[in-house]
Amino acid sequence: MKNFKFSSLLLVPLFAVLAACGGGGGSSNNSTPTPATPTLKSIAITISSTTIPVTTFQDATATGTYSDGSTKPLTVAGGLAWATKSGSSAVATVATATGRVTGIAVGSETITATQDNVVGSVTITVTAPWTQVSAGGFQTIARRADGKLYAWGQNNWGQLGDNSNLGRTTPVAVNNGAGTTAWKQVAVGDQFAVGIRAGTGATSTGGTLWAWGLNNNGQLGQKNLINSSVPKQIGTDATWVSVSAGKYHVLALKADGTLWAWGRNSEGQLGDTTTLGRQEPVKVGGTDKTNIATWIAFAAGGTHSMGIQKDGTLWTWGDNTNGQLGNATSGGAGVSTPVKIGTGTYNLVSAGANHSMAIGTNGTLWGWGANSNGQLGNNTTGGTVNAPRQISPDTDWNLVSAGGLHTLAVRKDGTLWAWGANADGQLGDGSGTDDVISPRQIGLDRTWVSVSAGDGHSAGLKADNSLWTWGRNADGQLGNGKMVNSSIPVNIPNSTLN
Fold first, then answer.
1. Residues sharing a CB contact under 8 Å with residue 17, sequence separation 6 or more, in sequence order
2. pLDDT confidence of residue 20
3. Which of 30, 200, 292, 468 is most buried, with most CB under 10 Å away?
4. Could you tell me the strand order of the sheet in which 406-411 lies?
5. CB count, 10 Å around CB of 410?
6. Which of 136, 166, 141 is nearest to 471 (CA)?
7. Is 10 helix (H, G, I), strand (E, B) or coil?
8. What percent of the chain has pLDDT over 70?
């Protein structure tokens, strides 16, 4: 039998036919398989700050991490749902459409972001922002929006009001005493303090008056000379609307526009036509029926007092050793009855240890009295000025506060200015230069809304309700946990306060 041998040329078309018919066992489907869809595994919430003051807000965003390791922003349109974990809006709210978190009341709340049954969360703390601060001789007291007072600094006479005599370098809550309503205002003197609490009832005008600390001149208004480390109510009147504390005396205004005073009066600083010390409020100007003055602003200084009546006229009384009354004289006996000063009109006054400052109704700034350290800001130092003298030609002054030997002021653009003694850094300019004799801008910030000059330290609030202190700190009066002076403003947070 003859053997046949297939030529390779014959095999080529054969394999081609087999391939065309699907031969060789190969699949007829060449498409790529569809990959599995990544699933959402976790959600992270980002917020610029987890501490939110009452009435302010922070915007929260959510980012999802998927099973393939990828991440992407999550949106409400894509199924994201915002909520509070408690389901309540008592402490905070979160906008379901945007994730904006708003502080409602002091406390803590957890904000959740949910999508595809996956939940992310972040816990926020809502605090009450600072709304007022008063710097005294050796201590400071500030009020929060929730009506609570916090104090720090020297406390040897109970002037912090915390039911102790322990000095504090950080804020401590002022004891409520027998009161139950929120604090509306506080004024700090040399080593004592006075505050106004909210009245009761929907139609209540003004509030009740309370005092604590040193009482060597009856400045607590208790009809005695007993110190107190907790607030004690002064009388029963509930129509007090404003108060100012001097070195050892107090001025306070009632809703009817009458001005009252008590405490030390040896220089006539109570203005009641006598020089008798008073342990309870007496009417400024005396009790005569002809005394019908209506006051709109006032200030208690070291040993003198100032006030503005409803027509804008300026009146002063008390010690005039350094010309601080502005009546064109100096020295001699104190003046025990309010005396009108000049013909100008004013809307704000501030009394320092021995100098006086005022802002005219046209925005001009005026100063007079002692000028040993340039505290008047009139570009000179030394001597006294016994009548109001304009400080700079500017007409945009908004606030002024006279301290021991220095002065602070804020212009309408929110900038902070200071002058006078600076040995303890109380001007806040960081220079260490003493005796600045004309207004010097402090930093570049344009958000200052309140200032208070103490004996050797200073305090102020910015528009974001943050609290700042600077200057002398030997007694912890800056509240930053230290006892070292600071020549620049330091922030005093309230996020850890109850």
1. 23
2. 37
3. 468
4. 397-402, 406-411, 416-420, 436-441
5. 22
6. 136
7. helix
8. 92
Domain boundaries, the chain: 40-127, 130-491
C-alpha 128, offset from chain centre: 10
Name the amino acid, one letter, at 78. Answer: G
Contact 447, 463 (CB under 8 A): yes
Q: Which residues lie closer than 8 Å to 356 by C-beta, 6 or more apart?
A: 301, 304, 306, 316, 324, 325, 326, 349, 350, 367, 368, 369, 402
Instruction: Report phi then psi at 15, rounded to 5.
Output: -65, -35
Q: Which CATH number fits domain 40-127: 3.30.420.10, 2.60.40.1080, 3.40.1350.10, 3.30.565.10?
A: 2.60.40.1080
Contact 470, 484 (CB under 8 A): no
* pLDDT of residue 48 exceeding 70: yes
Q: What does the block give as tokens for 229?
A: 């480390």
Amino acid at 295: W
Selection from 435, 443, 448, 383 nearest residue 407 by Cα: 435
- Give the position of tokens 């200032």: 451
DSSP per residue over 437-459, as a string?
A: EEEEE-SS---EEEEEE-SSEEE
Helix (H, G, I), strand (E, B) or coil at 13: helix
Rounded to the nearest 5°, which phi and psi values hold at 192? -155, 170
DSSP three-state, residue 20: helix
Token pair recorded at residue 393: 């030609």
* Tokens of residue 260, six digits: 């009252």
Strand partners, 162: none
Compute the average pLDDT of residues 129-140. 96
Q: Which of 74-83, 196-205, 358-367 has the lowest mean pLDDT?
A: 196-205
3-class DSSP string for 168-192:
EEEEEECCCCCCCCCEEEEEECCCE
Nearest to 349 by CA among 288, 297, 411, 426: 297
